[in-house]
Each structure stands twice: as structure tokens, then as C-alpha cells.
Amino acid sequence: MTTTTTTRTASPGRWLATLVAMFTAAFVIGCEPPAGQGPPKEGVAAVYDGRIIKWIIPYSPGGGYDEYGRLIAPYLEKYTGARVDILNLPGAGGMRGANELFNAIPDGFTIGLINGSALVMNELAGMPGADYEIGTFEYLGRTVADRRVLVVTRASGYDSFADIWNGGTEVKIGATGLGGSTYVDAVIVNEAFEMGLNIIHGFDSSSVIRQAMLRGNIAGTWGSWGSALDAVDQGRDKIVLQSGKERAKDLPDAPLAYEFVNRTADPDRARAILDAWEALHAVGRPVAAPPGTDPERVAFLRQAFDQALHDPELLAEAERVKRPLDFASGEGMARIVAKSKIMPDDIRELFVRAVLGEL
Amino acid sequence: MGIIEGLTSGLLQAVSLSVFPYLLVGAIFGLVIGVIPGLSGHFAMAMVIPFLYSMEPGAGIAFLLGAHSTVAQGGGLTAILFSTPGTGQNAATLLDGVPMRQNGHGAMAAGAAMTACFLGASFGAVALALLLPVLQKVVLFFGPSEIFVLAFLALTFVAVLGKEDITRSLIAALLGLLLAMVGVDNVTNQERFTFGLLELRDGLALVPVILGLFAIAEMFELFVSGGSLTGANARPLSARETQRQVFRGMLAAFRRWWLVLRCSSIGTAMGLIPGLGSAPAAFIAYGHAKQTSKNKETFGKGNIEGVIGSEAANDAVEGGALASTVAFGVPGSSSMAILLGALFVLGQETGPNMLTYHVDVVFIMIFTIIIGNLIGMLGGMFLVNPLSRATGLRGTVLVPVLIVIVFTGAYAVHSAWFDIFVALVFGVIGYLMKELDYSRAAMLIGFVLGFAVEKNLYLATQLDGPDFILRPIPLTLAIITVAFLAYNIWGIVQHRRERDADGG
What we know:
The complex is a heterodimer. Chain A is built from 15 helices and eleven strands. Chain A is α/β, with parallel strands linked by helices. Chain A has two domains: about 45-145 and about 285-350, Bordetella uptake gene, domain 1 (D-Maltodextrin-Binding Protein, domain 2); about 150-280, D-Maltodextrin-Binding Protein, domain 2 (3-Layer(aba) Sandwich). In chain A, helix 4 (about 65-80) packs across helix 12 and helix 8 (about 180-195) runs antiparallel to helix 11 (about 265-285). The longest helix of chain A has 18 residues, at about 15-30. Chain A is globular and about 65 Å long. Chain B is an all-alpha fold. Chain B is about 75% helix and about 0% strand. Chain B is built from 23 helices and two strands. A two-stranded antiparallel sheet of chain B has the order 1-2. In chain B, strand 1 (about 185) and strand 2 (about 190) form a beta hairpin. The longest helix of chain B is centred in the last third of the chain and has 32 residues, at about 360-390. The radius of gyration of chain B is 22 Å and the shape is globular. Classes of the chains: A alpha/beta, B mainly alpha. Chains A and B meet through helix 1, helix 2, helix 4, helix 5 and helix 9 of A and helix 2, helix 3, helix 17, helix 19 and helix 20 of B.
């Protein structure tokens, strides 16, 4: 656009340049919410009214995190009165966004959606680049907890988790990079039950894993419940195992990992591993403000987030686009994060090795 | 719904009053995004998504894909006129587009590029339509073993590109391979060439590297040598002459329909392969255009066939890339991942259900790509004139403005300050390479393919065992690679002999 405006010579194409500029301007203006409606606000609400909240999303446009952000942002605008601008800061497996949020000016105008479970693990493992302190964020609440599922293709011939267990080294499970969530889930459950499955990592993305499943190169993979839905609905894949302490309402037929602890040689150890695993999943995807944010503003944002996530319109929208929501309050999140960091030394060591890719 | 029925219904919907205006607005928006370096197709789509919540499926798809389809056209335009490729896919266009501009044929190159884009995109879309009945089988054709051999075959095109000076080209290509290794290797979790920098852990981003190698290097040169972007010999053209050049360029693209067809097939085929992306496709098509041209020696010095070949391929990719998204709901690229998310928002199911019950939606996509690119071509025609006037400006006026745009573009990809630094460093490298006569194209090919070669070699050995190369498809491809390489090496040896004979 700047290039077109450098043109000063009269030319037949100039009207078009103007048209394009006008169009772009209209587009940008069209994105802004109408300001100055309703009665004047008081207190903290007045501080936020018409201002801009920067919302950090730690992944690129188009991913699951970005979709959650763009889904929820309008409702956050509705209840804060501020404009919410999404800022994608991808990099270092979500740690770049978390670091930026951690170091942002704590004025209550920067918030971030963070990949909680992985951030806790990276901090525990002392991963290079984990320059945040997960326990010190001011949590506004949680959008969704991680519900992880093991999916296998129907074509693979494995009909249940027991089949897979019996298959042992014959079973190929795909995963992305070492230390990624699909990898950690696969090796942790493998370790808890001492199954000896053949976990093949190094896939570029979950899409490439799906492709390999379609081709029959691998039997299955771990993933979030939401991402597995499509292929399950189409009858291609089957969910054979789910994380969580009780079976999800809309997933009554897939057994929990917990249901298999008694099949192992050391049920207590298996249970301890799964407990730590569950505590991490509970962290899920929280929204947080930088440490040291003014308590009054945190309280205001918490309330707005609470209202936004209970807005019937948002709930309906989320249902329609198959993005499950699982709200937890800001106060609750602080407890969930604290709890997730506590685990026995041997279990912690196991998780650290999983995250560092040494398992 | 039958295919013929779906085709008619899709076409009627695409040109209906409730859909077409969105397609038009989307296409112009995409063109504008393409003109701005750093902002790519998937950025255009992400910007559009918030509007989809209140839209009808047909209109939403037209809006979204319309915006996506014209980005390459806008990017090709600025690649030629300002050496600032909008996105990675326009990098190959620089190789001959820039020399053409310097010879005073910039507008012609732009006309040819936009027409080639339109033709390539149409080819890709039609190919997708023809493949519909066997789409699922075609998509599953390519696994890690096949992709590894194909990427390796693509790498050997360095031999074609750098025929004139094979030693320097190999050095550049190997440097490119090394650059591809920067970052944390997700197979071994080892940091490679990161120098302990967090910013380098994810590797080098493609766009800042390209902007540095070509655009910033060009700015340096302009600043050192003075003059303007059009080159010393070219005189400024009147508006009418410029327009005439544009039409001549467009005509040239139509005349070389056989080349367009071949390069489009390369693009479509590479689009079918998940994870390769459109930048390699454009380079391979460029290499192919050079390999089959009668005037090989003018490539890189302003041969219009180089522009046509690479632009035809980079838009033909889209038809192929749609295949796995439509067939299985498995996206083959980041843009397609966004499309898939958007289809959810619009309440559309992909995969077998779409192919069986909503094939008209697939045809809306197909016609959107074709019509969107047509709009992009017509809109771009009017953009060439004002834009090409600016290329005649003095370097001292233009360089500061372009530097601002380029830095903004480098920053915009990941909102990262570090990427501006990357662009600057590669600007210096690019300038030195140009001065010392090392092929930047060879380096880019190494860079864009290095990752695919390494990653898929690992996966191939894990999934199919070390003898994966002996399976029928990889073996066939490997034989083609060896034959291709042997043919070219033989050509190089011949060339040397002749030269020595001449010299002696």
C-alpha cells in the first residue's frame, strides 16, 4: 500500500490505487467494535472502556489455540468494554508467548492464552528457554482442560486398548517431535503400563501423523479429543483410551487409562504416574495476566472472563465449531497449577526424561 | 449428489449474487495482502475468519479462498517490480523477473506472471476436479519414502540451475542445506547451529531469509551503485507503453501454453505432497523451464520463460494442496489447516461426506480459485502501471521506503524483532553472493528442501526399514533421479570439454 502512495505521477491506474486504499481502510475500520455506547462506566470498568487489551496467542494463526482466541475474543470485548487485539507470538513450543507475557508490563492490558500443561513440564525439566515462573502468573481462568485420547484406525485391526497392549512392539504409534505433547503422552502411558509399544516420533505435525495412519504406516496416535472427533465421526478411527478421572459424558464407550492399572505388575506405580499425568492435564489452556498485575484489574478481568465463558451464545458457537470449553475460575487455576507441580521424585524424574526426549 | 450435478450447482452458486460479491472483495483483499511482503496467504485467511461466523457456507468459502488465491499474484508483482517477494512462493520469480525489470521489461514480466498465475491456478483447480473420483487413492500415494526420494530429486535441480558454474552452485546449495538444519532437531532433540539463542531454536523462517537474500541485497547494491530499480539502460516508459508491455507479457504466457501446462502439472503434483509447500514447486518448475528451453544461457538474465514457469507452478500448487483437505480433512499446509478450521465454522464436513453429499461445495472451491485468479489478473493489470512508475525513482528516494516495507514484512511473519536481524544478515550474505557470483537460487533450494529430505529420510527408515528405497515407487523415482543427474553431469562434462577445446 505504501508503494502505491509513493506514486505521485498522474496515471490511469491511480483511481484503482485509491480504491484499494479505501477498501483496506474500510476493512480495518470495519474490524473495530463500535465505541461509546451505553451509559458511562465507573471504577475499573471505566479504565477498560474503549481501551485495547493485547491478547497473546503463543501459536500461529489457524491453530487450535488461535481458534480458541478468535472464538472467545468478541465475548471478552463484550464484558470488558475494551477492544481485544490478538497477537500471535509463535515459537519455542509456546514458550516464546509465555516469556513475553511473563515480562509484559503488568498494567492489566496484556493477557495471554498459554499452553499450561507443557509449560509446567518445561519448567520442571529446566528446559532452556523456560524463562517464566508458571506459579506466579495472575490467572483469569481456564478455557479448556486437556482431554487426551488414543486413537487408532479401524483398518489397523486393533479394536481395543487390550489388543494394543497385547500387540506390544508390533504396534506403531506416531508422535511429533521429542518432548511434544503427542510424544509425552505416548511414552508416559507406555511407561506406566510397561507395554513396550513402538513409538515413532519425528513427524512434522499432527496432520502428517494422520496421513501416515491413513496410509497404514502406523496404527494410531495420541491427540486432543477435539482433534480426533472428525475422523471418528467419519468412521475411520476409533478412540480406544481416554485420559481423565471419569469417562467423558459424550465419550462413554472409551475406557479410562485408570481402568487398566490393575493389569500391570506394579499398580501403585502406574496409578502414581497417571495421577501426575492427570494433574498436568487439568492445567489445560489457561488465560493469564503477567505477575504483579493490579489486584483490582485482575478481579475485573476474572469476572469478565467468567461471564464470557458462560455466555450462551459463545457456548452454542463453541459446540457448533467443535471446540469444547471447560471453564475453571482464576482462583481455581492457581490451585490447579500449584498441585500439578507436586509429584514424587521418581515420577518427576520420569516426566522430565519424557519432556527432554530421553525416554 | 452426482459430479455433473455438483459441478453445475457449484458454478451457479459461485457466480450468483449472494456469493460473487464476496469472491470479488476477497480476491482484491488477497491481492493487497500479497503486495505486502511477509503477509502470506494464510495470514489473509486468518484475517477473514472472524467474518465467517455470520456468513452462508458458499459465500464464506468464496470470500476465504478468494483472498487466498490472489496472494501469489500480488506477491509476484512486487517480486518483479521491487525485488520484494510477498511470500516464499514468489522467490523463484525473482530469478528472471528482476533482470527483466533491469532490462526495462518489468511490466511485461508482470503481465506474464499474472497470466501464468491464472493459468496455473486454473490448471490446478481443473486437475482437482478430474481427480475427484480417485482423490483418496491419489493422496495416499505419497508417504515419507516417496516424499524423501521426490525431495531428493528436486534437490538435484541445482545441477540445472547452476550449470554454468557447478562448483559455486554446489557450495551455495550445501550452504542452504546447512541453513535448513538450524534449530532443534525434533528427532534427536539436539540444538544445531543455534549458538544458544532461543530465537534460533525453531530454525530460520523462510520469508526473512528470502527478503534478505534478494530484496535487501538489491537495496545495498542500489545504494552503492546509485541509479534506479529499472537499471541504468532502461528509459522511463509512458503509461501507454507500460500497458502495452503488460499485454505483451500476457500474450507471451498464452503463447507458451505448453510450458505453462508442464509447469502447472509440476505444481499440482507437488501440491498433492503434504508438507513440501509451494516455494520448492516454483523452483522445480523454474529448473524444468530452464532444462527444456532452447535458450538456457539467457535464464537468470531476464528470460520470460523463467517467470512464466515459476508463477504457473506456484499457483497450480493450490489445487493439489486442496486434495488431502477435501479427501480426508487432513490439511497439507498451514493455509489448508486454516481452511479446514473455517469449514468447521461454516458448518461443513470434509472427507468422504463432503465428496459424497456436498460435492457442490468442492466445486465452489474449484470455481473460486479460477474466478478469483481471473479477478486477480485483471486487478493486477491496473496495479502494474502505478507500481512500475515507482521503479523509475532514484535509489536514494526509493531505498528508504522499501527498507521500511521489507523490515515490516520480515517482522510481520512471526511478530519477531529477531527476524529483522535475520533479514539484515542475509542481506549482507545475498549482496556478497551476488558480487562473488554464487547462486542464491541454489542456496534457497537447499534451504527449502533440506528439511523435507532429512525428516522424511528418518521417517522412511523408521516406517519401511532401511531397504525402503527398494519398494516399487521409491525405486522408480530413484532411478529417474540417477538418470537425470547422470544426464546433467554428462552435459556439464561435455560443456567443459568444448570450452577447453575452444580455449586451447
